[in-house]
Amino acid sequence: MDEVAARAVSLPEDVAGLLGKLRERLDEIVGDEPLVVLKAAGELEAIVASTGPLAAAYVTGDEIPMPRVAEALGMTEKAARSRLAYYEFLPR
Predict the structure, then answer these.
(1) Which residues, 6 or more positions from 17, have their beta carbon under 8 angstroms from its beta carbon?
(2) Contact of 80 with 9, CB cutoff 8 Å
């Protein structure tokens, strides 16, 4: 699976940096402020609920071949199909 993941698209540096900082900060405070972390998790879920389905719709609408989708996401075709289906049916 490492070879598959190695071919995945890279996140833009700013996005990767923000996600890394957010993960690090939430890990730091979860023991002392679990309610704050739950609040942040809810905000992240809201972002996923609005952006995930939109991105999946673009992928589907552009008819990107599943092997390319899987490679870009760093996963198997089965997992990529599952990811797209998840976002397609995610309640907004």
Answers:
(1) none
(2) no
Q: How far apart are CA 60 and CA 30, in angstroms?
A: 37
Residue range 23-69, pLDDT digits in tens: 999 999 999 999 999 999 999 999 999 999 999 999 999 999 999 99
User: Domain extents for the chain?
Assistant: 33-92
Sign of CA dihedral 4, 70, 83, 54: positive
Two tokens at 18?
């923000």
H helices present in 30-76, as ranges? 34-61, 66-73
Three-state secondary structure call for residue 6: helix
Structure tokens at 2: 């490492």
Taking the model in full, what pTM does it have? 0.81
Q: Tokens 């609040």 belong to which residue?
A: 39
Q: Which amino acid appears at position 1 of this protein? A: M
- C-alpha triplet 36, 29, 91: angle, nearest 5°: 40
